[in-house]
Task: inverse folding
């Protein structure tokens, strides 16, 4: 039996890969390039539209632990990220073009997957995984609203600008990674004095912004606030947030700056640099005017401006079972960001679970997700537990059952052990049964 997957993003690609690993077949629909979105640039599968960082590699960090769990489960996305990684300190940062190219080639060359470049406007017959993402087309969103029986929710996602590395004033910047003493560091730091920071802050909160359209009149996701919205919360909010100088020392004078903007490589060559944590909804001319007030960016050439777009997700606790099946239509599964997880790796995790779950449902085999003492299982539990104030969520240790800060190492060991046990029970038996 062939399982239909709607959406060629991280979750859809991961789901398709897992289905074929289990011995099944999949047809993967991607509407680009025939139908574009407000955020995508090209037609490659699994395109990263925001940051090119998949966050921490540290196993003592929930983001790092989640990646390791997926690595052990044979995630195609994490494998491609490891292969296309570029320097990023303690984070897994990728060359976004090479990353998407690698994944597109993997799907196209997989004999068990048919890739169809067309928009899906209704839910097809048979087993279906909806992985249409936060930029679900209006036609499909309307069908999903009727199908789920619950109103779709929306929030903003904001994209950081990218500048030409050759246009930076390196005499007013220095390389370093927070808390790492050895080596030059993977981030280019642009320091500001208190006076420079005060002027920048004032310009930021008074800058012109993109006018809101009706569909945009909704709340922001707390973990991805535009920099100007953060600035409005208080004069020092940025200095204690994305511009915090903690863990950094300017080698030119041996002092810690008052505030710092960090620039991170956008590609392997380092010719493009991303303004870390500077997602914005300012108008394009205003972005250039305000961000050039940072001394090192005085003559910066902007290769990509920041922007905003709508994110759509379902009310998962009302709609989904722990197998990521729709309660009212069990043949339909949901995966990725549309389920209400936030983040690249979290979306990948839900794609992996949905792919395996859908395959086993089609094969008539019982499925259950990993336990809540794992990162993957904790995310599934969050999505499917009653919550009157449901909001998109990144992975964090607070979601993991039995976690204690005092015994973090034990919690990490338990999570990895449970993932290995689940893999043997569910994946290996699933392959044998198929």
Result:
């Amino acid at each position: 039996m062939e399982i239909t997957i709607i959406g060629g993003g991280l979750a859809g690609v991961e789901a398709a890969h897992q289905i074929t690993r289990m011995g099944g077949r999949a047809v993967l629909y991607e509407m680009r390039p025939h139908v574009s979105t407000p955020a995508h640039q090209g037609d490659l599968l699994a395109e990263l539209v925001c940051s090119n960082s998949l966050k921490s590699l540290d196993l003592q960090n929930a983001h790092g632990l989640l990646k390791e769990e997926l690595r052990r489960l044979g995630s195609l996305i994490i494998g491609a990220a490891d292969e296309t990684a570029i320097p990023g300190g303690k984070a897994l940062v990728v060359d976004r073009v090479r990353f998407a190219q690698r994944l597109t080639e993997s799907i196209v060359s997989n004999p068990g997957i048919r890739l169809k470049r067309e928009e899906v406007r209704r839910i097809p017959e048979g087993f279906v995984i909806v992985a249409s993402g936060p930029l679900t087309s209006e036609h499909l969103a309307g069908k999903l609203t009727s199908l789920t029986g619950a109103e779709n929710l929306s929030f903003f996602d904001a994209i950081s600008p990218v500048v030409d590395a050759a246009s930076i004033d390196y005499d007013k910047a220095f390389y370093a990674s927070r808390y790492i003493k050895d080596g030059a560091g993977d981030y280019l730091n642009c320091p500001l004095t208190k006076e420079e920071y005060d002027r920048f802050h004032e310009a930021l909160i008074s800058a012109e912004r993109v006018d809101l359209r009706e569909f945009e009149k909704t709340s922001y996701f707390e973990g991805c606030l535009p920099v100007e919205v953060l600035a409005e919360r208080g004069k020092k909010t940025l200095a204690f947030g994305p511009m915090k100088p903690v863990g950094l020392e300017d080698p030119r004078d041996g002092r810690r700056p008052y505030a710092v903007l960090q620039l991170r490589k956008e590609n392997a060559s380092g010719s493009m640099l991303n303004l870390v944590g500077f997602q914005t909804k300012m108008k394009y001319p205003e972005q250039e005017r305000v961000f050039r007030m940072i001394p090192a960016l005085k003559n910066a050439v902007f290769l990509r401006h920041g922007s905003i777009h709508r994110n759509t997700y379902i009310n998962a606790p009302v709609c989904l079972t722990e197998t990521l099946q729709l309660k009212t239509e069990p043949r339909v599964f949901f995966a990725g960001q549309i389920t209400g997880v936030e983040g690249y790796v979290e979306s990948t995790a839900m794609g992996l679970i949905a792919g395996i779950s859908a395959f086993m449902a089609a094969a008539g085999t019982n499925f259950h997700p990993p336990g809540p003492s794992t990162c993957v299982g904790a995310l599934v539990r969050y999505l499917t537990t009653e919550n009157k104030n449901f909001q998109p969520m990144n992975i964090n240790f607070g979601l993991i059952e039995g976690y204690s800060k005092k015994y973090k190492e034990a919690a990490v060991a338990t999570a990895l052990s449970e993932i290995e046990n689940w893999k043997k029970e569910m994946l290996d038996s699933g392959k044998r049964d198929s």
